Amino acid sequence: MHNVESKELNIHVIGVGGCGGNAVTNMADLCSHTNIRFSSINTDISALHQCKNHEVLLIGESTTKGYGAGADPEVAYNAAQQSEEAL
User: Which domain holds residue 42?
Assistant: First the structure.
């Protein structure tokens, strides 16, 4: 017979941007499992204020001034580079 060691399962769901944040908010609202951690990452501080029941991280604050990347991938990339240590 095999000895199987039971380990606690830990899951971290991370949503990026407005759509990702909305998805994580909906998942967090519906989930009752304590071993699942939810986080949202965004350049738009107002979008992060809409995120309930989970952790948030504002990135690229000096790049976007908290107003978002405006769907511009280069702005989002620069914001992520600026916040690399926090990420």
Answer: 11-82
